[in-house]
Specification:
Number of strands: 8
Structural class: alpha/beta
Distance between the termini: 6 Å
Bound molecules: D-xylitol-5-phosphate, zinc ion
Number of helices: 8
Order of helices and strands: EHEHEHEHEEHEHEHH
Helix content: 25-40%
Strand content: 15-25%
Shape: globular
Largest sheet: 8 strands, parallel
Radius of gyration: 16 Å
Length: about 220
Amino acid sequence: MPIIAPSLLAADFLEIGKACEMINQSEAAWLHLDVMDGRFVPNISFGTPVIAAIRKATDKILDVHLMIEEPEKYTPLFNEIGANILTVHAEACTHLHRNIQHIKSLGMKAGVALNPHTPLSSIEEVLQDIDVVCIMTVNPGFGAQKFIPSMLAKIERLKHIILTKGYTTQIEIDGGVTLENAPEILKAGADILVAGNTVFGAKDPIKTIELLSKMS
Ligand code: DX5
Ligand code: ZN
């Protein structure tokens, strides 16, 4: 059974409390929170005060995706406000191994995200230390983009490496996940599906989460 991580980026920001209530009632185990700085990606979303408020509204696992430069500066702050998983981009980290260890030393799970063009070899030497690899299946910065089909082979290759080596690393897929393409993404080896527009754009978000979580 896949883990479903609805992305708050696609919610109505005037109704974040209601979005949290919906998530609480749903089968989603994680809530995906996209932090953007306008430098690493060409967009600005929300930051720590908003996430601190969300922490009070849900007990779900907060999966924080940092699309920011110098993410290491903010690791302790995201831990203080209650992030459970902290994901940094490999492209934004000069000292990725150090950042992963720092995140884990504070008690959070460490995620590393890869842009579509970034090869798996860029994390090969630290893969065993990573809790969650987030394969970006769109170029980060915006919701509601189209899934890049060539990423399926990348997911398959990563799954093969993880299984061969016997690592416990989970694979998260972020960008353009729909009810239609979810089965092939799971077949390729995904463990966690992020879904923004597919969930929050649906007539019945709770039902949509249920459908996604029952896929295999
Ligand atoms: C994109 C973000 C995604 C986004 C996914 O930069 O990292 O998490 O919210 O949105 P959808 O599912 O609509 O592509
Ligand atoms: Zn994301």
